[in-house]
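Lab channel / #folding
Pinned by the channel admin:
"Please post every new chain as: sequence first, then the structure tokens as a reply. Keep commentary short and put observations after the output so the thread stays searchable."

First post following the new format, from NK:
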Amino acid sequence: MQPPLGIIEGFYGPAWSWQARAQVVSRLARHGYGFYWYAPKGDAFLRRRWQEPHPPAQAAEMKAFARHCESQGVAFGIGLSPYEVYRQFDGAARRALADKLALLAELGVQRLALLFDDMPGDTPELAQRQAEVVAWVQAHLALPDLAVCPTYYTDDPVLDRVFTPRPPDYLTQLGKLLDQGIDIFWTGEEVCSRAVSPAHLRQVAERLGRQPLLWDNYPVNDGDRMSRHLHLRGFTGRPASLAGELTGHAINPALQPTLTCIPAITLAASYRLGDDYCYLAATREAAIEVLGPELGRQVCDDLLALEDAGLGRLSDERQARLRECYGRYDHDGAREVLAWLAGAYQVTDEMVQTQ
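Reply from TO:
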């Protein structure tokens, strides 16, 4: 059994092109990916400048992408982060949010995710204030699919260190206050979980009063440290038995759109094959599908350098050999490797703090 699979484009750093997004949708739709949330941290008009409309050219691109998703049988969604709107949800904030929702509806949005992640949690009665915003949106938006990302979307204590300690029983309160038809995102036991177990998801479901929607932070590779590595290996630590514990499984992709399809395809394979899934064999099969036989095998042969060692541990000589090797291929995947070697995908702390 395979749960609903999809993409939540929620990374920091350099943005994908609209052409790349369309290519990812077309490729992954064939493997059962049925939804796509557009929510890059670099789109200020969905975050700190959320009250402003997207520039006309960008809005037209989004509308065309929504049509492409529909043509592929993929539901197009937007992840909106109305920055700290829950601090003062007054008449002005409501009017601004209503205007934004109307604009998004014009773009062909079929799903909306309200994202309260990466914001301070020091507001009194945080769950109640956020639930008030969600209920208002639900009443003013004619969309059947609404999801919420809590401020504390994992038990990982790193969130308490960065965004102030979480209020007691925050998740339980939020789950009780939100309509049962609303999905709630969860990343697992960590922000970037090494593994996700059915037992953990059952525990989370008890607190939320519903099964969670998994926001899987693999193969995402944003941030100063992770952007120095390419995430190419097939999924591990996600047994097929998760399917019965989730309302959906959304992956946060890597900065490299072509290469991200390799692990994405293996996730579908892991659900399909169950106990017969072998992650390295699935990686090789997916790499050949995405990159072709020769380049696919080359990438698999270089996993130790590209994924494990990363830019910080590759000598100048080794990097030069890799540039020579991948420079021989006329393929978007090879060009992404070359751009990564050149530092084009490096995500700085400043990007994370300002996007």
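NK: The chain has a mean pLDDT of 95.
TO: also worth noting, The radius of gyration is 20 Å.
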